[in-house]
Amino acid sequence: MVRPRQVTVLAGPTFMVSDARGDVTLAGDLPEGLFHRDMRHLSQWALRVNGRALEVLGAVETDSDHAVMYLQEPTGTIYTNPTLSIVRRRRIDRGLHETLEVTSHDTEQVRVGLTLAFGADFADVFEVKDKLGKAGVLYHRLGDDHAVLGYRREEFRRETQVHAGAGFYTRESVEFQLVLEPGETWTRDIEVMVDTGSDAAPNRPADEPLLAEWLAAAPRLETDSDDVRHLYRQSLVDLAALRFCPDPHAEGMVPAAGLPWFMALFGRDSLIASYQALPYAPGLARATLHALAACQATEFDDFRDAEPGKILHELRHGELVHFGQRPHSPYYGSVDATPLFLVLLDEYERWSGDVETVRALEPHARAAVRWLDEYADLDGDGFIEYATRNPATGLVNQGWKDSWNSIIHPDGRIASRPHAVCEVQGYAYDARVRTARLAREVWGDTALAERLEQDAAALRSRFVDAFWLPDLGFYALALDADKQPVRTLASDMGHLLWSGIVPEEHVDAVVGHLLGDAMFSGWGVRTLAAGQPAYNPVEYHNGTVWPHDNALIVAGLTRYGRRAEAARIARALLDAGPYVDHRLPEALVGASRDDVEVPVPYPSACSPQAWAAGTTLMLITAVLGLDIGDDGIRTAPHLPDRVGRLALHGVPTRFGRLSTD
User: Fold this and answer.
1) What is the mean pLDDT of residues 633-643?
2) Which of 204, 232, 425, 460 lies 20 to 30 A from 15 at CA?
């Protein structure tokens, strides 16, 4: 079955998804509508000419926030040519701006009835996902040139204002009666404004760069590969489109996690995407660090899975959160965001030299370290575990593989919880090593630095003893509630290379598994190896190929000097680019490239998605061997086949803008 064509435009937390005609009808299972800050402000938006739906001649997203649909009046037969053409030009900002152009190609005067049907169900994003009903009441107001659609539940209010100029308005539509002469074009500008009933943050502050400025500020890529060039530009465009202000006082814009379900501040996603983008757009990292520090937990809260010092998982602003029906105000059910916060803080300082930010965030970094030391280890065995304290609406799995069945034994049995997942132990190791450097070099706390280095070394030794499976030659996916290893061959051990926790004597075995036929599909490394009963190439975390997962693996291979293997995985992902319009999706189906000659996006994959967008950037960094040193940038290129020349000019660093040549 071919997936229906959708048209998507977005600007941070505001986005619209429609069919190729530009209509929103909610006819299928795919999410449609105009959304703003976690609620749907248009659930119907359908254009009709003389009572009939239009036919699509062409639809294109000219930019992330612009789209054009070229339509015609249906004639019902191939033997009669249409005499009306309609163009819909759409732009998204904090609301919707749409221009309608109706042109007559008839030889005589024609009368046209043009109707724009509208409606707003004001569904919370969780209600859309879970197909829940509303608890409040809908209302409407009509004016001579506009209609207001509203929703109220106690003190909570949202409104959608449709300003379409003079016409005949009802509570569900506006109608225009046109009289067109031959060759005449009728034009109407329509504005849809959203009202949240509060002083919400703007999508983009006035001093933040527009897309053209954003692209101009990024390093200039020089390459012989058109595919790499297109992937690079699309990555930058998508990251720019996903930027938003998490609150009115935010210090810059952060990347939302992904469209359509995750257009919000996420700890893990925003941190990893910002890390990926550091040598290209370092402002994302600074803004993300400040935004997450501002929301860092300060107390225990079972409903929100919070403990002092913990970094949030997800922050939402919709109705269900407002009334305490969901814990995302924010929700802290993430076991990895806190160590990743420390990892990014160090990496940001290494590249930027911004010690002022590191000093300003020192209390937050120390609180994060305290969380690692005092609260992350649930049973005192020296490893970080998770177990939700909110069984009704909390996440049962709290690593990056957070679907309900992602931590699974090879035979398909769900591992008992609490879990200690392997990659998070690596993140915690890296976080301690990196924070030790900041303590010594920026905060002047030698005692803390020495203690963190000792703790990191002890964790590494303890981890290898508990997680390494000598009979299988790889690391366990996790330890279960009984401290038994989950002996599943999975991609998570590639993250261990990125963190540096793997001793050299185990690297060859790990690399051999990652590039073996069971794990490497030809388009990338699978989340879970084929040949195990638990493997499913279309299971969200149990057999698919995630670009960001592979990017971290490539970075890990590069760290350990396995550059040929890194280039092979990078080549596979670059090969996928042309088949997905050079926009890598959240995940690909894990079927073998030998069996499926084209990469197949996972059916409900987010696109654009922040860490998928950052994947191309991280791949370029890795295959160039790009790093920052004491006196500038250094490179050790090992390029994938068919890339040819690859260089970056104007890389932002602590030493100014430099080139890789």
Assistant:
1) 95
2) 232
